[in-house]
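Hi C.,

You asked whether I'd gotten around to modeling the 307-residue construct. I have! Everything is below, sequence then structure, no commentary in between.
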Amino acid sequence: MSRARQQAALWAARRLDAGDRDDAAFETWKSADPAHAHAFDQVWRASQDPALAEAMRLSEQRRAAPRHTGRWAWIAAGLVACGLAAFVAWPQAQLMTVAPVVLQTAPGQHRVATLADGTQVTLDGATRLEVRLGARRRQVELVNGEAFFDVAHDARRPFTVKAPEGSARVLGTAFDLERGDGRLELSVRRGRVRLAPAGLIHRTAELTMGQRAFAKAGRLSAVRAFDLHADDWRSGWLETDGVTLARLVERLNRASPVSIAIADPALGRQRVAGRFRLDEPQVLVRNLALMHGFTVRQTPSGLVLSR
C-alpha cells in the first residue's frame, strides 16, 4: 500500500473517532498533494461500507487499547486490513448500482446489438443477456443461450461474461460463449480470453485465437483447437466431431419454434457427429432418426424423440 494510502487510513481513523478530529491539520494534509485527496476519498468510501463498519465494531469490543495515538493506529490498521477487501470489491459494488440492459431473443430469432461502449453482440435464438457497463468494469450475465461478442477495447474497464458455470474475462477480443448441458463453452476468434470455472479456488485457462474449452462442475476441460474458417451457428451450421444427442437438441431448440424433447435419457446420451444445419431443426431430427434408429412423434407440445 502506498504512503498516501496509509496516511489516508490514519486520517480516516481519526475522523471516525469523534473525540479525535483536527480539521485544520487534515485540510492542510489533504491540499498538499492531489494524491492525498484521492487516497482519502477511497479510504473514506470504504469506511462507510456497512459490512466493514460492523467488522470494526465487533473488533473494538474485543480489544483493550489506549485512547490516543495507539487508538488511531489500531483503527487505521483495521481500515487497511479490512478496507483492502472493500477497495477490491468497490468496482463490483459500483457495477451493481448500474441498472442492467436486457437483451433477449425468441427461439429461431437472431439479433445483433451494439452496446454503449461499442461492443457488438450477436445473440442466438432463445438467448438472454443482462448487460451492466460501469465506470470501472463491464459485465454481462449470460442467463441462457449463446452469444458472439466482438468486444470494444478499453484497458481501463475489463469485460467479463458470467454464468453460473463460470466466467470469461477479456480486454478486447472476439469470442463465442455458450451455456448448455451444465457447462459454459468458450471459443476464441480473436485476442485472448481467460476462462474460469465457478468456485473460489480453481484453475483458469488462457485461450487464444482458434482455441476452445469449457467449464463444468467447477472444472475446466482440455483446451482444443477448432477451425476458424468453418461455418458456425451465425450462418446456420454446427460442425462437431461428437456431441450427445441431448446437447444437440438443446442447441436445436434455440433455433426451433417447435419444442423438441427426448423421452429416453439413454437416447439423450447417444453421441452424434457431423455437419448439421441448425436452421431446419425439424428436418434434421427426422434425418437423424433414420440414421440412428430412434423415432420422432408429433405431439400437441412439439416433437418427442424416443426409442
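If it helps when you're writing up: The chain has three domains: 3-96, 101-225, 233-306.

Thanks,
B.
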